[in-house]
Amino acid sequence: MRIKLTLIALCFAMVAMLAGCGEPQEKKLVLGVAGAHSGDLASYGLPSVNAAKLVAAKINAAGGVNGMMVEVVAQDDQCKPELATNAATKMVSDDVKIVLGHICSGATKSALPIYLDGKIVVMSPSATNPPLTQSGEYPNFFRTIAPDDAQALLEVEFAKKLGLTKIAVIHDKGDYGKGFASFCKQFIEADPAVEVVLFEGVTPGAVDYSAVVQKIKGSGADGVIFGGYHPEASKIVTGMRKKDLVIPFLSDDGVKDDTFIKVAGKYAEGVYATGPKDLSSLPMNQEAVKAHKDEYGEDPGPFFSQAYAAAQALLAAVEAADSTDYDKVVDALHNNYVETAVGKIKFDSKGDAEGVGFSVYQVKDGKYTEVK
Amino acid sequence: MEYFLELFLGGLTRGSIYALIALGYTMVYGIIELINFAHGEIYMIGAFTGLIVAGLLTMYGFPGISILAIALICAIIWSAAYGFTIEKVAYKPLRGAPRLSPLISAIGMSIFLQNYVMLAQTSDFLPFPELVPEFEFMKGAGSIMSSSELVIIAMTVLSCIGLTLFIKFTKLGKAMRATAQNRKMAMLVGINVDMVISATFVIGSSLAAVGGVLIASHIGQINYYIGFIAGIKAFTAAVLGGIGSIPGAMLGALVLGLTEAFATGYVSSDYEDVFAFCLLVLILIFRPSGIMGKEKTQKV
């Protein structure tokens, strides 16, 4: 009984504290940060909170945005859609105008309608599900990471550049691999100059893939695109090379992994794989990573650079719009280039960042080297 | 025609591997009517032993073909030791128990061995060196069949012939047949049944080890999980051919390998497993004891 009473008292205390936060105050710009800050996916969400705090501290030190001090308010959704709607409702009721988040595609999708009704600009550092932007339903949604299909588009464009015309598309039947392969197929079919001569899934873990290799050979393909992870990719490449089938092999960021080179050995030479752009040479990114190390004493976690860039882009848009008015901020995001931790970006009409994305890498002398 | 031939040879290779593993299942079942689910893990342990030995020998600069031979022998010895021990630890104490108990014990053993190898080695995929040297005369035909595939098929044929001769003509083989027919009677005529059962495990494990080293060298990678799928497929092959029968296991394995290869080649690799298991269901409907199995009335 006593514990219950204590809990109730604690709840009241917390509500009172939150009410205190909600008081209208001049000269303050609240940057909401939503995502998984606890639970098993917290490692993906917490770096974005750190990023937002670092950006806010840097901008506050330089006098704030249009004279307003930036304050970071975090809302946890644990990457769960039902908690994400709660977080979004809280943001709306607190009159937050710009939100950095959410982290997971599913949670983002469930929260977006609430933000749209409340005219809140949302920018995710990590939700890659393509329809979030491409469906056109959420003009208030932006992201600083390339969607899943951008990788497939780059892959197909690169295949065309290599002069391939008949492409065998193979996948591992999984969500990620098959999704990637389906996008590739769709982009290849959109161009009459190239065709898909084979579209098939292999069973991960099967004893060998010689039948599939023979099928690729029989299809007359002059190149292979594979969607999936490195164990299957290395088995297929090894099988192909052993059967004297020396045609280009292209794959995705599930294969752009050093384990692939280790396992496939000499057969890995010449394999192409797309992967996220290397950000380490960007000065702004170096600065962000250094700030993180200075403040928290360790290397930043996943999506830190994307979150840092999102915070920069959002605050820059507010500054350019000279207000937090929804239409003006959205206009600024679409029209103004900003220098961020992921490079110089602005957002296309759908809300995807232009200028971020993937690069093509090739295995040369046992190392992935970027293909310029 | 060439395409057909290529698929046929690919299916033959795959079937050979299944056969090497399936023989272990079928022999153990024939003697003590136990499905040894840890058999796939013996295959995996054979492959790992081959990797470690081959690594050591390469370090000391042994020539190619001797590495293959020594790795195979070491893998056979080590896997046989595992097979022997598993029987003593997990099955022998349960010999009088209801049939479900040793079956569960087998599944437990399988999971234990997987995790043991995962912890002792790594959960990553590891590269496996090519132990079978490229043959000179294969250079031109390499696009149809590689030398490692040829070696796999040849080794399987040799193992099968050797095993058949062994069971037909040696004293131990005779004792095995007698034990399979009736364990109690075999005991009464003075056959050391425990020894026969151990020998069965040792022979089955050796064959699986050969399969493990050869297939790992063929596809070039291993990890702790490879025994699971190979084991399931080989078990299917044994049931398909009629579990308990040695020629049945070989036939079942070849039928399964060829079915998978042709299903992939002429339909789609999406349906590889669908066709394989449809075949299993069909055969079990029309011949419940498998292709070469003997009808036996049994109280269940």
UniProtKB/TrEMBL annotation, chain A:
User: Where, by residue number, does the polypeptide cross the bilayer?
Assistant: none
Q: Please name the Gene3D superfamilies in this protein's record.
A: 3.40.50.2300
Give a yes or no for keyword Transcription in this entry: no
Identify the keywords attached in UniProt to this record, alphabetized: Amino-acid transport, Signal, Transport
Segment forming the signal sequence? 1-19
Instruction: Tell whether Transport is among the UniProt keywords.
Output: yes
Record domain Leucine-binding protein: where: 31-366
Pfam families in the cross-refs = Peripla_BP_6 (PF13458)
UniProt similarity note: Belongs to the leucine-binding protein family.
Listed name of the protein = Branched chain amino acid ABC transporter substrate-binding protein
Q: Which organism is it from?
A: Pseudodesulfovibrio sediminis
TrEMBL record, chain B:
PANTHER family the UniProt entry points to: BRANCHED-CHAIN AMINO ACID TRANSPORT SYSTEM PERMEASE PROTEIN LIVH (PTHR11795), HIGH-AFFINITY BRANCHED-CHAIN AMINO ACID TRANSPORT SYSTEM PERMEASE PROTEIN LIVH (PTHR11795:SF371)
Q: Where in the cell is it found?
A: Cell membrane
Q: Which InterPro entries match?
A: ABC_transp_permease, BCAA_transport_permease
UniProt xrefs under Pfam families:
BPD_transp_2
This protein's membrane topology, according to the annotation, is:
Multi-pass membrane protein
What parts of the sequence cross the membrane?
Answer: 15-35, 42-62, 68-91, 103-121, 141-167, 188-216, 274-293
Q: Transport: present as a keyword of the record?
A: yes
Supply the name of the protein.
Branched-chain amino acid ABC transporter permease
Keywords linked to the UniProt accession: Amino-acid transport, Cell inner membrane, Cell membrane, Membrane, Transmembrane, Transmembrane helix, Transport
What's the family? Belongs to the binding-protein-dependent transport system permease family. LivHM subfamily.
Lineage: superkingdom? Bacteria
